[in-house]
Amino acid sequence: MKNTHPYFSVDTLEYLKRGGRIGKIAALAGTALGIKPIISFDRVTGELSSTHKVRGRQAAMKKLVQVAISHIDPSKRYNIMWAHGGAPEDGQRIAEMLRAAAPDFVQEFSGEIDCTLASYVGPHLLGAAVQVLDDDM
Protein backbone atom coordinates (compact mmCIF):
# COMPACT_ATOMS: atom_id res chain seq x y z
CA MET A 1 0.00 0.00 0.00
CA LYS A 2 2.90 2.40 0.60
CA ASN A 3 3.49 2.46 -3.17
CA THR A 4 -0.14 3.30 -3.99
CA HIS A 5 -0.97 6.94 -4.59
CA PRO A 6 -4.74 7.65 -4.64
CA TYR A 7 -6.33 11.04 -5.31
CA PHE A 8 -9.97 12.09 -5.31
CA SER A 9 -12.00 15.03 -6.52
CA VAL A 10 -15.31 16.07 -4.98
CA ASP A 11 -18.12 17.71 -6.89
CA THR A 12 -19.47 19.74 -3.99
CA LEU A 13 -18.02 21.27 -0.84
CA GLU A 14 -21.26 20.80 1.09
CA TYR A 15 -20.34 17.45 2.62
CA LEU A 16 -16.86 18.60 3.60
CA LYS A 17 -18.51 21.52 5.38
CA ARG A 18 -21.08 19.29 7.10
CA GLY A 19 -18.34 16.94 8.26
CA GLY A 20 -16.29 19.79 9.71
CA ARG A 21 -13.42 19.29 7.28
CA ILE A 22 -13.79 22.87 6.00
CA GLY A 23 -15.39 25.94 7.52
CA LYS A 24 -18.62 27.62 6.45
CA ILE A 25 -16.84 30.64 4.96
CA ALA A 26 -14.41 28.48 3.00
CA ALA A 27 -17.30 26.36 1.69
CA LEU A 28 -19.29 29.44 0.67
CA ALA A 29 -16.35 31.10 -1.07
CA GLY A 30 -15.23 27.84 -2.68
CA THR A 31 -18.71 27.12 -3.99
CA ALA A 32 -19.06 30.65 -5.40
CA LEU A 33 -15.72 30.31 -7.19
CA GLY A 34 -16.33 26.75 -8.40
CA ILE A 35 -13.38 25.38 -6.41
CA LYS A 36 -12.89 21.62 -6.66
CA PRO A 37 -10.30 20.31 -4.22
CA ILE A 38 -8.09 17.35 -5.02
CA ILE A 39 -7.81 15.27 -1.86
CA SER A 40 -5.68 12.34 -0.77
CA PHE A 41 -4.78 10.45 2.36
CA ASP A 42 -2.08 12.04 4.47
CA ARG A 43 0.90 9.65 4.51
CA VAL A 44 1.47 10.17 8.25
CA THR A 45 -2.02 10.42 9.78
CA GLY A 46 -4.08 8.60 7.16
CA GLU A 47 -6.64 11.42 7.17
CA LEU A 48 -8.08 12.98 4.03
CA SER A 49 -6.44 16.29 3.22
CA SER A 50 -6.51 18.71 0.31
CA THR A 51 -3.47 18.58 -1.96
CA HIS A 52 -4.58 20.95 -4.74
CA LYS A 53 -7.45 23.30 -5.56
CA VAL A 54 -8.71 24.00 -9.08
CA ARG A 55 -11.72 25.75 -10.58
CA GLY A 56 -14.28 23.63 -12.41
CA ARG A 57 -14.98 19.96 -12.92
CA GLN A 58 -12.95 19.58 -16.14
CA ALA A 59 -9.89 21.20 -14.57
CA ALA A 60 -10.31 18.94 -11.54
CA MET A 61 -10.35 15.86 -13.75
CA LYS A 62 -7.16 16.94 -15.52
CA LYS A 63 -5.41 17.73 -12.23
CA LEU A 64 -6.56 14.44 -10.71
CA VAL A 65 -4.86 12.47 -13.47
CA GLN A 66 -1.81 14.75 -13.46
CA VAL A 67 -1.08 14.31 -9.74
CA ALA A 68 -1.70 10.56 -9.86
CA ILE A 69 0.71 9.96 -12.73
CA SER A 70 3.33 12.24 -11.16
CA HIS A 71 4.32 9.19 -9.08
CA ILE A 72 5.30 7.14 -12.12
CA ASP A 73 8.97 6.38 -12.59
CA PRO A 74 9.55 5.32 -16.22
CA SER A 75 12.02 2.67 -15.07
CA LYS A 76 9.40 0.91 -12.91
CA ARG A 77 6.27 -1.07 -13.59
CA TYR A 78 2.96 0.36 -12.42
CA ASN A 79 -0.79 -0.19 -12.33
CA ILE A 80 -3.42 2.47 -12.90
CA MET A 81 -6.70 2.69 -11.01
CA TRP A 82 -9.80 4.80 -11.29
CA ALA A 83 -13.19 4.95 -9.63
CA HIS A 84 -16.33 7.02 -9.46
CA GLY A 85 -19.13 7.57 -6.99
CA GLY A 86 -22.30 7.92 -9.00
CA ALA A 87 -20.67 9.57 -12.01
CA PRO A 88 -20.05 6.77 -14.54
CA GLU A 89 -19.51 9.06 -17.54
CA ASP A 90 -16.91 11.12 -15.72
CA GLY A 91 -15.35 7.89 -14.44
CA GLN A 92 -14.94 6.68 -18.01
CA ARG A 93 -13.37 10.02 -18.95
CA ILE A 94 -10.85 9.65 -16.09
CA ALA A 95 -10.07 6.14 -17.37
CA GLU A 96 -9.41 7.45 -20.88
CA MET A 97 -7.22 10.25 -19.55
CA LEU A 98 -5.20 7.83 -17.38
CA ARG A 99 -4.69 5.40 -20.25
CA ALA A 100 -3.50 8.22 -22.51
CA ALA A 101 -1.19 9.74 -19.88
CA ALA A 102 0.25 6.44 -18.63
CA PRO A 103 -0.04 3.94 -21.49
CA ASP A 104 2.60 1.47 -20.25
CA PHE A 105 0.60 0.22 -17.25
CA VAL A 106 0.65 -3.45 -16.27
CA GLN A 107 -2.97 -3.66 -15.09
CA GLU A 108 -5.96 -1.36 -14.87
CA PHE A 109 -8.35 -1.53 -11.93
CA SER A 110 -11.68 0.25 -11.73
CA GLY A 111 -14.68 0.42 -9.49
CA GLU A 112 -17.51 2.36 -7.99
CA ILE A 113 -16.83 4.22 -4.75
CA ASP A 114 -19.20 2.99 -2.08
CA CYS A 115 -21.44 5.00 0.19
CA THR A 116 -18.98 4.90 3.11
CA LEU A 117 -16.50 7.28 1.51
CA ALA A 118 -19.23 9.15 -0.36
CA SER A 119 -21.00 9.89 2.94
CA TYR A 120 -17.95 11.89 4.01
CA VAL A 121 -17.27 13.77 0.78
CA GLY A 122 -20.53 13.71 -1.17
CA PRO A 123 -21.82 12.29 -4.44
CA HIS A 124 -20.12 12.33 -7.84
CA LEU A 125 -16.71 11.62 -6.38
CA LEU A 126 -13.92 10.74 -8.82
CA GLY A 127 -10.71 8.89 -8.05
CA ALA A 128 -7.44 8.16 -9.83
CA ALA A 129 -4.43 6.29 -8.52
CA VAL A 130 -1.11 4.80 -9.50
CA GLN A 131 0.43 1.77 -7.81
CA VAL A 132 4.18 1.43 -8.29
CA LEU A 133 5.00 -2.28 -8.45
CA ASP A 134 8.79 -2.28 -8.24
CA ASP A 135 10.32 -1.46 -4.85
CA ASP A 136 13.46 0.65 -4.64
CA MET A 137 16.52 -1.54 -4.60
Describe the structure.
With 137 residues, the protein is of the alpha+beta class. Helices cover 36% and strands 31% of the residues.
Shape: globular
Following the backbone from N to C, one meets helices and strands in this order, namely EHHEEHEHEHE
Poorly predicted sequence stretches spanning 5 or more consecutive residues:
none
End-to-end gap:
17 Å
Radius of gyration: 15 Å
Number of helices: 5
Helix fraction, binned, reads 25-40%
Strand content: 25-35%
**What spatial order of strands do you see in the largest sheet?**
3-2-1-6-4-5
Report the major sheet.
6 strands, mixed
Nearest-integer average pLDDT: 87
Secondary structure: number of strands: 6
Q: From the helix content, strand content and strand pairing, which structural class follows?
A: alpha+beta
Break the fold down into its secondary structure elements and pairings.
Elements: E1 4-9, H1 14-18, H2 24-33, E2 35-41, E3 48-55, H3 57-69, E4 78-85, H4 88-101, E5 108-112, H5 115-121, E6 125-132
Parallel strand pairs: 4-5
Antiparallel strand pairs: 1-2, 1-6, 2-3, 4-6
Structure at a glance:
This protein is α+β, with helices and mostly antiparallel strands and 137 residues long. The chain has helices spanning 14-18, 24-33, 57-69, 88-101, 115-121; strands spanning 4-9, 35-41, 48-55, 78-85, 108-112, 125-132.
